[in-house]
Amino acid sequence: MPKILLTGALRREYDSGQLLEIDMKDNPFEQLKLWLAEAIAHPVRLPDAMTLATVTPEGVPDARIVLLKDLDQSGLTFFTNYESPTGQHLKNNPHAACLFWWPEQERQIRILGKVAVVTEKISDTYFQSRPRGSKLAAHASPQSEVIKSREWLDQQLESVGKSFENQEVTRPPHWGGYRIIPHTFEFWQGRTNRLHDRLKYRLEKNKVWILERLAP
Ligand SMILES: Cc1cc2nc3c(=O)[nH]c(=O)nc-3n(C[C@H](O)[C@H](O)[C@H](O)COP(=O)(O)O)c2cc1C
After folding, report:
1. Which of 35, 52, 64, 69 has the largest CB neighbor count within 10 A?
2. Under CATH, which number does the domain 13-130+169-213 receive?
3. Measured in angstroms, how far is the CA atom of residue 190 from the centroid of ligand 1?
């Protein structure tokens, strides 16, 4: 296999901005909200896409992207299939890391926290807001299982569509939300000469947020 060139021309300086303690909100949820608003306005493509890392029962890390669907002081909410590896890992070990990377702004946010299943009401309300096709897909697709073919999946969708004909598509019990309840947030802003700004909030005694600067 010919080597792909990942050095030289790909090397870049990061010089979009800076991050100073004085500009940081006292509360990291407010800081995240501010950065999300700035990412949306920039605009960053897919500002709501976050990499979510979980751990298998064997202690092996695994990661995938999910979409952030709600954010408030109680945490970050995303929706998935409870039976796929994400759900299985979280059932066994309810700790997760999640990460936003916004290249257009040279910003990264790392979040660590515990994860809890949201209420059925929250899952129902969000499920009902989805387009009909996505609702049907949640019934049709055994997420992350090996399947025979694309045709098989399309047939599943067709058959689920028929079973819900002229009816509201209800949320399948295996599909719903999780909330990440963070204890650590790190805000990263790329700077020149690899001397990036890194400001980390950690929750002390379960109630006070402490802000600290980390070496890049
Ligand atoms: C941009 C993007 C957004 C995604 N959003 C979600 C999501 O919100 N929920 C979800 O379950 N999977 C989402 N996926 C698919 C997941 O990355 C993954 O394939 C799926 O959740 C199965 O992961 P698992 O086998 O680790 O459980 C998204 C993928 C991409 C690339």
Report:
1. 52
2. 2.30.110.10
3. 27
- 37 Cβ closer than 6 Å to some ligand 1 atom: no
Q: Which amino acid is located at 42 in the chain?
A: H
- pLDDT band of 205, cuts 50, 70, 90: very high
Q: Which of 181, 188, 186 is nearest to 206 (CA)?
A: 181
Full-model pTM = 0.97
Residues in the chain: 216
Among candidate residues 43, 42, 19, 14, the one with its CA nearest the CA of residue 31: 19
65-82 average pLDDT score: 98
Domain ranges of the chain: 13-130+169-213
Strand segments (E) across the chain: 49-55, 61-67, 70-72, 75-81, 95-102, 107-117, 175-189, 197-204, 208-213
**Per-residue pLDDT, 93:** 98
Nearest ligand 1 atom to the CA of 86 is 27
| CA proximity to 102, closest of 24, 52, 54, 50 | 50
